[in-house]
Amino acid sequence: MYRKRANTGSRKVLVIHATNLTGLGAVEIAKNLLPELEEVGQNYVRTILLLPDDGELCDYTAEHPQTVVHRYKRFIPKKLSRLLEVFFVRCFIPRGSEVITLGDLPLLLPDRHQTVYVQTSHVLSPNFHKASSLSLSAKVSRLICRKLLPKVDRVVVQTEFMKIDLERTYPSIQGRTVVVSLPPPRWSMSPSSDSRTAKNTTLQLFYPASPYEHKNHKILENIDHFFRKCSCPRFVLTIGSDEFPAINSSCIDKVGILDKRDLLRAYRSCDALFFPSLAESFGLPLIEAMALGLHIIVSDLPYARVLCGDQAIYFDPSSMQSLVRAIKELDNKLARGVRPDWSQQLSNLPRDWSEVAANMVSSPIPYSL
Fold it and tell me: How far apart are alpha carbons 218 and 231 in whole angstroms?
C-alpha cells in the first residue's frame, strides 16, 4: 500500500494517479506523458506519482528530485483491490492537491481538485456505444462513474466523438469535459522507408494490440479459406502463441508484446498497419503508423474516420470479404507506388507531449463539496 503522507493544507501539490494502466495504448501514453507532467509539476511545491509495483510502469524513474514516487502493492485480487482503491486512496493524498487520475475511473477525493483521464470506451453506455463491454467489471466501472464523475472538476478525453458519447452517458459532466488529443510517441517520429522492394513480395500487415475481445482478432479465424485463389498476406500480431488458439494459420505470426526497438522494426518492415478494432477512445497505433508514413487498413468506424480522414483504407470489421477487398486495394496502391499523405491529419494533433501535459492540468473548474 501507499506510505501515508502528512496533510500539507495546500493546493500546490500535484498528484498523478496511475496504478491501474494495463492496456498497451494506456501504458504507452503514460510513458510519454509522465515526464512532461513531472515538468509541469515544477510549478508545484511537490509532485507525487502513484504507480503500480508490477508491469511496464513499475520501473519508471522520476526525472526531478522533487518528485516523490509511491508504488501500490496489491495483496488481494486486482479487481477487488481496484474497487477499494477508488474509495480509500484519499487517505494517501494530501487535502487541497490537484490530482490527475489516469486510470479511467474517478476516485472519491473530497477536498481535492481532480481531473479524470478517460481512455477506455467501456465506461460508455451500451445504449450509445454498441461495442461497450457487457461484462460485470464494465458494469461496475459504469456504476462508479455515475456516482463519482459528478464530483470531479474535469474529465479529459481524446476525441470529440468520445466527449459526445461520454456526456450522453453521464449528463452531469456536461460543460466539464475537455478534448485533449495526442501526438505520436517520440520513438515513432521518423519516416519509414517503403518495405515493398519488389513485385510479388508477400504483403505484411502489422496489428499491435492486446488480446481483448473488442480488438477483434477473431476476424482472422479461418483466414486461409478466403485466400484460396491468391496468396495470403502475412499478419503479425502482438499476442502470445497460446492466445486465440482458433486463430491458427501459416499466414499469422503471433510475436507477443514487443519492446520499442522491435516495435519500430515491425512497423518499418510492414506494408501497412492492420487495425480491425471495434472500439477505441483514440487509437494510438493509427497515429504511430501516420508518423511513420504507412498505409492503414482500418475498421470503418467513427473513431477511425475522425483520425484518418480520407487517407486510410476502410473495411467492414465484421466481414472477412470486406477485408479481402481492402487488402487488394492496398496491393494495387503499392504496385502503383501510391503513398498516403498524413500531413493534414498530423497537423490536427498537439505539437508535442508537453502541450498535452499543460492541457491536462490547466484551468481546473471548482466543484461544490
Answer: 20
Contacts of 19 (CB under 8 A, 6+ apart): 50, 51, 52, 72, 85, 103
Distance of CA 363 to the CA centre of its chain: 24
Q: List CB contacts of 22: < 8 A, sequence separation 6 or more.
A: 55, 210
Q: What is the DSSP string of 162-202?
A: HHHHHHHH-GGGTTSEEE---PPPGGG-SPPP----STTPP
Backbone angles phi, psi at 364, to 5 degrees: -60, 145
Q: Strands, DSSP E only, in 53-94?
A: 67-72
Per DSSP, what are the bridge partners of residue 273? 206, 296
Grid coordinates representing 277? Answer: 478494432
**According to the 3-state scheme, what is the secondary structure of 86-124?**
HHHHHHHCCCCCEEEECCCCCCCCCCCEEEEECCCHHHC
* d(C-alpha 363, C-alpha 369), whole Å: 18
Query: 43-79, pLDDT tens digit by residue?
Result: 898 999 999 888 888 889 998 888 999 998 888 888 8
Instruction: Give the per-residue pLDDT at 138.
Output: 84
- pTM assigned to the model: 0.81
CA dist., res. 272 & res. 221, Å (int):
20
The residue written with cell numbers 463539496 in the block is 369
- CA nearest to 19, candidates 64, 67, 83: 83
